Amino acid sequence: MPILHWSPRSPYVRKAMVALHEKDLADKVETVRTHADPMIPHEGLMAINPLSKIPTLELEDGRVLFDSHVICEWADLESADGPQLFPADPAARLEAERDEALGTGLLDVALPWLVELKMRPEEQRSEQMLAVYRTKMNRVAHWLEGHAARLTERPFDIGHLSIGVALCYLDFRFDGEGWREGRPDLANWHAGFAERPSVQATTFRDDPRPT
Ligand SMILES: N[C@@H](CCC(=O)N[C@@H](CS)C(=O)NCC(=O)O)C(=O)O
């Protein structure tokens, strides 16, 4: 069975997990809890992924896949079940992958924001960077509100998946930031996303960290 290096705290892992559920592959992949600490590179993980990041997927034939984009693409190629996450039509695919990049880009803002807030000693915290992260989060949410109709009308793809998971992560870690305020169309679209069985099956959780 393929092995997925996994954590219930990681939004990039959740992106891969939602894809596995959507494609009916979740039972065909074993998850192994791996603690990828951005402050302490993980020797065991780096032996297979030099970036020391999760998700990392070890296939049975010895190939190792990362990052979340590649693992989602593998899931789409591996199984014809569920929605086609990467559309065949070139224009539709470009739009889907652009939106995927926006979702992971939002996570690329949220993760260092969290590190700055929770992991750096208070005296080393940069108020300037905190303001930059908040600005970008708000601009992404604003952009998404303007594109919510498009998200609602087109078939589910990797763009929906990535954006939906990123907004779930804001709920998990940045609840006080209120991304829904003044953005009814986006909030409405996301409420539908949150009802998908793949999303319900993969909720975030602060589990005890492995030693
Ligand atoms: N671009 C990667 C990002 C993965 C990533 O940053 N994962 C975090 C966990 S949420 C990680 O492993 N961090 C450890 C580190 O940065 O060293 C993806 O989409 O999979």
Automatic annotation (TrEMBL):
<dbReference type="InterPro" id="IPR036282">
    <property type="entry name" value="Glutathione-S-Trfase_C_sf"/>
</dbReference>
<dbReference type="InterPro" id="IPR004045">
    <property type="entry name" value="Glutathione_S-Trfase_N"/>
</dbReference>
<protein>
    <submittedName>
        <fullName>Glutathione S-transferase family protein</fullName>
    </submittedName>
</protein>
<feature type="domain" description="GST N-terminal">
    <location>
        <begin position="1"/>
        <end position="83"/>
    </location>
</feature>
<dbReference type="InterPro" id="IPR036249">
    <property type="entry name" value="Thioredoxin-like_sf"/>
</dbReference>
<dbReference type="InterPro" id="IPR050983">
    <property type="entry name" value="GST_Omega/HSP26"/>
</dbReference>
<dbReference type="Pfam" id="PF13409">
    <property type="entry name" value="GST_N_2"/>
</dbReference>
